[in-house]
Amino acid sequence: YHYSYATTPEEAKKEAEFFLSQIKGIQFQYPVYYDIEDECQDDLTKDQLTEIVLTFLQTVEKAGYYVGIYTNPDHINQLDMERLKNYDLWIANYNLQNVYDGDYGMWQYTCYGKVHGIAGNVDLNYCFYDYPAFIRRLQKNNY
Question: Which CATH architecture has domain 2-142?
Fold first, then answer.
């Protein structure tokens, strides 16, 4: 995913172009996500932040990637999800149950996970879709 600091659509376009330069030639089995949760975006209006997200996602999508939004419940309320409903959501919500009641494909439920062979804490997620199969079908039908 790409962590955003964009506060304008123009900055989001630059972030997308940089992100694309970093992933050029690589096709992923999971969506590539735009992480929208930085405090520099807290004072933006819902319309402004939604435009930023749309600019990034549409730019990366046009380059042939399956895209989505990564955020948390506080920041999702800053987005117009009706305008973003065509994009998958990966929600970070560290509770026993996810408090977000909209549709989402992945849920990051902790940042304190333990994985054998990795020192320290790791993020742990549930995935509710077979993204590898879905993305393979998309690629097969589009190419």
Answer: Alpha-Beta Barrel (3.20)
Please give the full DSSP string across the chain, using - where no structure is assigned: -EE---SSHHHHHHHHHHHHHHHTT---SS-EEEE---GGGTTS-HHHHHHHHHHHHHHHHHTT--EEEEE-HHHHTTS-TTTTTTSEEEEE--SSS----S--SEEEEEEEE--TT--S-EEEEEE-S-HHHHHHHHHHHH-
Write the pLDDT tens digit of every residue in 132-143. 999 999 877 764
**Considering Cα of 126, then 87, then 131, then 128, what sign does the dihedral take?**
positive
Domain ranges of the chain: 2-142
What does the pLDDT look like over 10-39, one tens digit per residue? 999 999 999 999 999 998 999 999 999 999
Verdict on whether the full-model pTM lies above 0.85? yes
Token digits of residue 2: 């790409």
